[in-house]
């Protein structure tokens, strides 16, 4: 690869690894999406059709900051009155469907907003719907009495059907 340094071309090794590039790209896209949701002025006028938001949660106890951030994004769309809010938990995100695990998922960055259990219950009270990937729920122990009653088992068919006309946030 060539790098320009003070007007000259020089031979160097790889400037940025593929992994670093993808991480940087992902952080940039995530930051742009968060900025849009957290500070946007989009308000549906009375009588206007409201949107639908699907937040796909892929992290739980493995990355509590991302798990809580996903819940906060859903809360923002809901609090702004932008439309229906649906959360779908998959992979490690299925931790959130497990009552005892959600109570322990707490972000050091977003601590003032509460733990996953508190945020999920607030979302539910305000009308959000929750789904969890069935195999992921089983793997993460979110079954029987360990699973929140308000979290429905929903497969990829539900997700694919619902994201076709929704704003999707993948966390």
Give a structural overview.
This protein is α/β, with parallel strands linked by helices and 171 residues long. It has a single domain (50-170), classed as Hypothetical Protein Ychn, Chain: A (3-Layer(aba) Sandwich). Helices cover 39% and strands 19% of the residues. The protein is built from 6 helices and 7 strands; from the N terminus they run E-E-H-E-H-E-H-H-E-H-E-H-E. The strands form 2 sheets. The chain has a 5-stranded parallel beta sheet, sandwiched between helices. It has a two-stranded antiparallel sheet with strand order 1-2. The chain is globular, with a radius of gyration of 19 Å. Mean pLDDT is 82; it is low at 1-14 and 31-47.
In a nutshell, what does this entry contain?
It contains six helices and seven strands, in the order ββαβαβααβαβαβ. The protein has 171 residues and is an alpha/beta fold. The chain has a single domain, classed as DsrEFH-like (Hypothetical Protein Ychn, Chain: A, 3-Layer(aba) Sandwich).
Structural class: alpha/beta
Cα end-to-end separation: 34 Å
Strand coverage percent = 15-25%
**Biggest sheet details:** 5 strands, parallel
Number of strands: 7
Order of helices and strands: EEHEHEHHEHEHE
Instruction: Indicate the radius of gyration in whole angstroms.
Output: 19 Å
Number of helices: 6
**Fourth CATH level, the homologous superfamily:** DsrEFH-like
CATH class: Alpha Beta
């Amino acid at each position: 690869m060539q790098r320009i340094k003070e007007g000259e071309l020089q031979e160097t090794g790889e400037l940025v690894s593929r992994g670093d590039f993808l991480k940087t790209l992902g952080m940039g896209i995530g930051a742009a999406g968060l900025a849009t949701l957290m500070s946007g002025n989009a308000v549906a006028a009375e009588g206007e059709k409201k949107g639908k938001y699907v937040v796909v949660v892929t992290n739980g106890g493995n990355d509590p900051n991302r798990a809580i951030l996903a819940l906060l994004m859903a809360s923002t769309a809901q609090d702004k009155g932008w439309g229906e809010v649906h959360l779908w938990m998959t992979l490690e995100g299925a931790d959130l469907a497990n009552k005892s695990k959600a109570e322990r998922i707490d972000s050091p960055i977003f601590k003032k907003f509460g733990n996953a259990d508190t945020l999920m219950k607030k979302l539910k009270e305000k009308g959000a719907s929750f789904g969890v990937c069935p195999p992921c729920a089983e793997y993460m122990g979110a079954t029987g009495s360990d699973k929140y009653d308000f979290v429905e088992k929903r497969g990829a068919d539900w997700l694919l059907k619902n994201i076709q006309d929704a704003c999707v946030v993948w966390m």
